[in-house]
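One such shown below:
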Amino acid sequence: MERRNVTRTPQEVLALCREKDVRAVDLRFTDLMGKQHHLTVPASQLNEHAFADGFGFDGSSVRGWQSIDESDMLLVPLPDSAWIDPFTSLSTLVLACAIQDPITREDYARDPRMIAKRAENYLQSTGIADSIRIGPEAEFFIFDDVQFDQRENSGFYHIDSGESWWNRGRGESPNLGHKIRHGLGNMCSPPNDQTGDLRGEMMQTLIDCGIDVECHHHEIGSAGQAEIDIGYGGLLETADNLMTYKYIVKNVAKRHGKSVTFMPKPVMGDSGNGLHVHFSLWKNEDPLFAGKGYAGLSDVGLYAIGGVLKHAPALLAITNPTTNSYKRLVPGFKAPVNLTYSQRNRSAACRIPMVSPSPRAKRIEFRCPDPSCNPYLAFSAILMAAIDGIQNKIHPGDPIDKDLYDLPPEMADRVAQTPRSLEEAMQALEQDCDFLLRGDVFTEDLLLSWIEYKRQHEILPMQMRPHPYEFCLYYDS
């Protein structure tokens, strides 16, 4: 196993290349929308000077980045990020890169990794804590077949999973009948669970690439929904690991003729894919969220919840950044649409897990995010909301230790809800973004570009297109 996120010198990376007979170096970075890109160079191009001089690329071809008249940018390899890609036929070393302006050599303000780095630095500058630990639970679907298209005169999608209940009557040779009933996939065992070996290979590949894994299991969705939980780490470290996690999971699936999606709601009427974010703050190795209050929380922990809940509508513009995200955030399906908090309660937006009495295990789980987000931006925004809550002592009010989907109407009306659409979330972000701008973690320019891109390239195109179900409803009007 190649260790990740450890201090390495360029000389040590070059020695690793010689040890592993590396023939190619893959330089990777993530755009503003959370999509990973790469540039591959021969191993001979990687020398000590390259770690300082970087490699040129066209920044105008990356979504939300440079204009064409200022297109030249630099990829500067980060030696601490080195690992060996298990999927390439040619022995390939992977290096994450910082993005810099080639003239000023300043770090690029729209580089998501830089935003995450600034968020961690800002936390330290406040004196509240010296570190944040994040543990993500990313869910995904494994499909056997995926087809979709959208044209001026047609639009459709078709997805399939051999283990799903809808294939009980399919003419397989033979059909053994071990299909998963609707909504009963959570931690089911073989032969109903038909993706256990595949998840096991995903888990081992993650471990081989230096990522700690806690567990894997089948999720609630009957059509191959899965979850693999990876270990806790710092904000930037965990965001890096989550990008690698998505890369590995998708490519292990592809190797077996399967397709993985982290789309929040690909199956109608079934559970969607969440990204439950567990986080805690630490100072001098002491857990700051542990105390003697509700659910074993400290005042700091309660105020962090208060900040997250207060800013949640704006947060969701970053943590739930697609139009499809809001098809997951509907009542039922364990979707956290209620902006309140509770111990053990998975129907609340913020949950305090009670699985261990250890103060070191005391943490907050923010259940609203989904894995379509850019983790560098999402984790940074959550941290900034928590910091604001702590600095301003924002109390979250009383917890609700009841099934929030079954509250009496007079009580349910008093519980704030998540935005119902991406446009609502964007409006909330426009009205409530000051907490993100502190410490220059996010910039006003970046947020304006984010909102404009989402409206012009996602919200408006969706509004312009007829939906197939509208034909069912209205064609014979």
The first strand starts at residue 24 and ends at 30. Residues 131-474 form a domain with the Creatine Kinase; Chain A, domain 2 fold (CATH 3.30.590.10).
